[in-house]
Amino acid sequence: SEGLNTSLGVTYARYGDRTLEMDIYRPNDAWGKLPAVVCIHGGGWAKGNRANHSKIAQALANRGYVTATISYRLSGEAPFPAAIQDCKAAVRFLRAHAKKFGIKADKIGAIGLSAGGHLTALLATSHGVKELEGKGKNPKISSEIQAAVPMGAQTDFLSERTRKVSKERVIWKQFMTGSQDERPKAYRMASPLEHLDKNDSPCLFITGEKDDESTRAEKFRKRMHELGVSSGLSVIEGAPHGFI
Fold this sequence. Notes:
The chain is of the alpha/beta class. It contains nine helices and eight strands. The protein has an eight-stranded mixed β-sheet with strand order 1-2-4-3-5-6-7-8, with helices on both faces. Helix 4 links the parallel strand 5 and strand 6 (147-151).
C-alpha cells in the first residue's frame, strides 16, 4: 500500500458493546474530494474478514478513490438482516464523515465478491427500505449508493435454484435462519431483484466463467434494462467462483 494514506481499524458502527471497523485507503498525492468505494468481503456470509478485500481496496485507491474495506456481523453472530444493516451503516458513516476523509458525499459506490457481491447488489437496490437500515449510527444520513460492482453474486433469492440450495446448504440456512420454503418473506426481503426500481444505481456484474450461471444475473440485468438503469456483465475467462 505504498503511496497510500491508510487508516486501519476505524470504528463505523456500534451496537451496545459491539463495534464494527473499517480500513480506509486514500491516494497520498490526491487533493480535494474523491469518490469512495465500500469493499465487502465474501465467505458465505459466515466467514472471511475485511483484510480479504484489502488488495482490491488498495488497487482502487491507487486509481484515485477513497476505499474502505469493512467488517460486518457474520451469520454465526447475527443472521440476516444484520450484514446488510452493517453495510448501510458503513455507507452512512463515510457520507457523514466525507469532509474528514476527503470524500465526494454524492459519489459512493460498492464492490464485493460472493456473499459480498450479494450485499453489494442489495445495497444498490434497497435504498429506503426501513427494515434493512438498522441502528448502526448516523440514522439521518442516506445509505444510497451511486454505483455497484457485484462479483460472483446471487441476486434472485426467490429463484428455483435458491429454493434448492437453501434446503441443502448450511450457509443459506444459517444466514437466512431457514430455507426459502420456510422463510419466503425473509428471502424476498434479502433478494436484490425484488427491490429493483428505476432510481437504483448502475451495476457492473463480474463473474468467473466457471462459476454458476446464476452469478451472471440475467433476470436482474434484463429488469434493469427494462427500467432504463445501466448494467453490464464481465466474465473472466477460465476463472472459478473465487477469482480474486
